[in-house]
Amino acid sequence: MQIINTENYAEMSKEAARLVAATLRLEPEAVLGLATGSTPQGLYAELVRMYREEGLDFSEATTFNLDEYVGIGPEHEQSYRYYMDTNLFNHINIDKDNTFVPLGLTEDIEGECEIYDELMDMVGGTDIQILGIGENGHIGFNEPGSVFVASTHVTDLTESTIEANSRLFAKKEDVPRRAITMGMRGIMSANMIIILASGEKKAQAVRDMVLGPVTPECPASLLQLHPQVLLIADDEALSGIEF
Ligand code: PGA
């Protein structure tokens, strides 16, 4: 795993945007794996700026998001489809038909998991996968547990994730208890993975990911086995690691 240590969140976001933009310029039909949460918001803002000011072209790109809450629809302001539309897709020239976010509100959630993996297989996986990291070491909603789950699946969110994400809901009880998430196979099949981390709260998870054993108790630790991973993190997130 290569590490880029940035001074702060803004630098982290710019560095990540520079790499996504380079991927798109080399390969306009690139398949981008995207993440939600607070961490990539600066990256998306920078990509929107690059679209407006530098003509960065998304018209032929395809995107796959990592996850979605189960039980809320795309119009729900806390859904990840809504997040993607409002943070990125509505502001760039991407064809929304080529943007995939798992459906969290569907009669057939197991079928949705299968379809999602089939769609990803059809495009040959992602060229570049953006990830954040949970305070508990999760990536996507692959929560700590006793096994790595390969395929897209429905998962129960851990207390720590519900607590961390409750800041975005009116009250903790409103946070959905389950989510649909791309599994480790989908994530690991990316040609290149960029994992972003900012802030003191992520220091322990980052340390476990980089220096700890490869274990499903810290799902991000599996990234140690991927040949092309770049961790872009600020000083605080890297404070648990000595260089
Ligand atoms: P955050 O979430 O970016 O909102 O901190 C990251 C994650 O839980 O993967």
Please give the largest β-sheet: 7 strands, parallel
Helix content: 25-40%
The tally of beta strands, per DSSP, is 10
**Overall average residue pLDDT:** 97
Number of helices: 7
- Broad structural category: alpha/beta
Order of helices and strands: EHEHEEHEHEEHEHEHE
Please give the structural blueprint:
Blueprint: E1 2-6, H1 9-26, E2 31-34, H2 41-54, E3 62-65, E4 67-69, H3 80-87, E5 99-100, H4 109-122, E6 128-131, E7 153-156, H5 159-165, E8 178-181, H6 184-188, E9 192-197, H7 203-211, E10 229-234
Parallel strand pairs: 1-10, 2-3, 2-6, 3-5, 6-9, 9-10
Antiparallel strand pairs: 4-8, 7-8
2-phosphoglycolic acid binds near residues 133 and 134.
Describe the structure.
Helix 1 (9-26) packs across helix 2. Strand 9, helix 7 and strand 10 form a beta-alpha-beta unit. It contains seven helices and ten strands. It has 243 residues and is an alpha/beta fold. A seven-stranded parallel beta sheet has the order 1-10-9-6-2-3-5, covered by helices on one side. Helix content is 31%, strand content 17%. The protein has helices at residues 9-26, 41-54, 80-87, 109-122, 159-165, 184-188, 203-211; strands spanning 2-6, 31-34, 62-65, 67-69, 99-100, 128-131, 153-156, 178-181, 192-197, 229-234. Residues 37-39, 132-134, 138 line the site of 2-phosphoglycolic acid.
